[in-house]
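The data are quoted verbatim here:
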Amino acid sequence: MGVPARTRVPCVPVTCHSLAGPHCGAAAGRLRTGSPDGCGPAVDRPLSVRADSLEWGWSPGRAGSVRPPGPAPSASPAGRTWDPHSRVPYDGAVTSAPSPQPTRDSADRPAPDPQQSPAQSWSARLRRFGYAAQPVQDVAQRLDPPYAEPGPRLWSVLKVAPESRPGLTRALGWGGPLLVTLFAGLLRFWNLGKPNAVIFDETYYAKDAWALLKRGYEVNWPKDYNDTVIELGSKVPVGHDPSYVVHPPMGKWVIAAGEWIFGLTPFGWRFMVALLGTLSVLMVCRIGRRMFRSTFLGCLAGLLLAVDGLHLVMSRTALLDLPLMFFVLAAFGALVIDRDKARARLAAALPVDEDGVVRPDAKIAETLRLGWRPWRIAAGVFLGLAFATKWNGGVFLAAFGLMTVLWDVGGRRTAGARRPYVAVLKRDVLPAFVSTVPVFVATYLATWTGWLLHTEKGDRGYLREWGAEHPSSGFGGLFPDWWRSLWHYSHQVWNFHVDLVSPHDYESNPWSWLVLGRPVSYYYESPAPGTANCPTGVREKCASEVLALGTPLLWWAACFAVLYVLWRWFFRRDWRAGAIACAFLAGWLPWLKYQERTIFLFYAVVFVPYLCMALSMMIGSIIGPPGSNERRRVVGVVGAGVLVLLIVWNFIYFWPIYTGHSIPVDSWRARMWFDTWV
């Protein structure tokens, strides 16, 4: 309700709901006062409030309302709306744009009310650890935040005309990620056919992929056949004797696509893996941009992935873990897009008051059906492909399924739902299950098509006819023979994986992965001077190695970034930090259960993208939040820039041992920073 002109106003809390900018605006009304506390002679002064001064947030139908002190009513009167922001836990939907209102320093906060609720008291206690109530925004902006744009100072430095700025900003949304991707592609495809040899586990997957292409199922190969494969290439004979393999076929079908195009050559079996590695950099740029609402931070995350040594080596080697990483990342990105689409629908359905401000509405928030969600179906497909590459991809189905449902809870709560969990249980859980789990199962089974279709004796996959040869009269008889054959085969594979404890020179404990305790050597040769690009003037032999080692400074900085996102999610409830932490933990935590199993550092490539996102997010905080003073920004930019340049330098320094380049053995020893790296 408006304040009459030339009146004396009591000192009461003031609420302002039009917080789309740094000030409340004319529509919020004006406070007539002559002193800073609002109790002096009546003069005309613009109304301004702090975002965290909202206690009940009651509005009688227009912005700028003032509610007298006293207990809040138990229900909103007809024609009036309640702003639930201060009673609704913040779900983390923030942008990197300037905050609409400043928050009050902890020293200015009022003393705790002895009658406050336990949740309020808990929030007050958390402030000592960095918890901060978020500024109140227009509900539409909280549900669908705008993207940050370069400030006027940057435009003036670059001498960009005002009329060109919007178009250039839009172009950078794709142009920046594409430039980073081009850089990553050059690194991954440069001299891809070298070493001209079958390295490490390519001895399994390159040949199995060729067998899938020629037979539809994996076959046994003669021992010590790698040199013959290099010599004969696509002319190598392929038998019919089925082979017992311990991984599903999808990753090998990916490798086979490159062999179909370029033949059975090192370049051919590495081509598709390098392509997926390059595309994953593009996806990280775009996913980071969408999550952080910042093209710069998104491109920074992609750049960090481009210069990670482990990701580079895995992109240049025909193993299954890089395709697994790609499919998991694609599912993650699809769910992030689905989150934005769903929240945009919620925002579009909410009422707009006479001042053009989107208001929360409990009925709409609790009853609105979000309709067709194709990106969730796409996520189900990608997760099925991940599981069909390696079984540890199945962990992400559970983790991402819980994550996307909690995102729906946060969206409905922000829109005004009083019981968001009940609303999601009624409206969203079943559609979420149907759009992911059945799609996941169907996709997984589809990747076994080659194994399923070959049933002729002498031309069929391993254990393909086990069901027909072992009929069942009990419960198993309800299932077709092919299903029971696949189930029996899968049971044997499961027993192999859980019982795999044979020692290996390069096995490592998952606790040591983040600090790069024991990298894996894929290839090592010692060429003599004057041979294999070894300089003629060296005193000793050269060393040519492909070492699956992450860029050390990047990974060690990422250790702090992981702690940062965990802190930011727990104390700030930042959904972006929570999503990154969820994906990282889903890729790392399950391995802690199998510490006695033979496992390797390169399994960690599946969560490398999320380490880069976490590090990009931490660097963003180092640079400083919007509204920081110039000194704070300068110090932050210099510190962040030094860190990024050191990481790039570190990558360049280790480049020779990522790509098998011949270097003097003394130079190789200088790069072995720890004994466990040898």
